[in-house]
Amino acid sequence: MSKKIANAFRNGKAFIPFITAGDPDLASTERFVLAMAEAGADLIEIGIPFSDPIAEGVVIQEADIRALRSGTTTEKVFEMVKSLRQKTDIPLVFMTYLNIVFYYGYDRFFTRCAEVGISGIIIPDLPYEEKNECAGIAAEHQVEIVSMIAPTSRERIQTIASDAEGFLYVVSSMGVTGVRQKITTDLKTIIGQIREVTSLPAAIGFGISTPGQASDMAAISDGAIVGSAIVRLVAEYGREAEDPVREYVRQMAGAVHAL
Q1: Is 62 a catalytic residue?
Q2: Which segments in the chain show pLDDT lower than 50?
Q3: Which of 42, 61, 109, 178 is an S-S bond match for 104, by CB 3.0 to 4.6 Å?
Q4: pTM of the entire predicted model
């Protein structure tokens, strides 16, 4: 049985890694997820590959292309997660685009999420104002839709945060995903505005790649989210990425949990 998203934050700060399903193949993805869970991840985001991932930088775009070329489909990702659930109960959330969910069918998609133990979903191209299009169906199946708050959302932060669920994904910087040398957004102010209206955990993602950055971001929020740096390791090592990914996550999770 899967654990709810809240479990990821029950012991304090959470480290949340992301990986693209099917890169280089789904059997490898399953091994990599288990390695991340063993290395100290508190919640894992699994990306369902999409042909036009508008929020992603080149690293994850290329991972999506590799995954799709390897024959990855949404249904095969569900089957991979079903297999994972026999080996770990770590909270899992999907990250994908609305087109994937829409064409699979909202009720069918969230029914499958419940069946395989997916606790939540992040949909970067789902505007807050249109969230209700699928929120009710997701709730019926106990799947939480994780809201994103970007630096440009300042006037809407408290509105978005007030009815959020699972956790809040705070975007560190303008632009798409990808490693950044420096994060300059006034994230303390954004986190402060969130705290005024909800006790829901808020984790920061986009651009984080080093233990120092992860520690800095988790120090002002409830956790750090890392994607591109892990996907880059998979691109470099392919099917042999299990040990490099495990060691990287161990270091990053250690930095977050030390707070």
Answers
A1: no
A2: 1, 174-180, 184
A3: 109
A4: 0.94
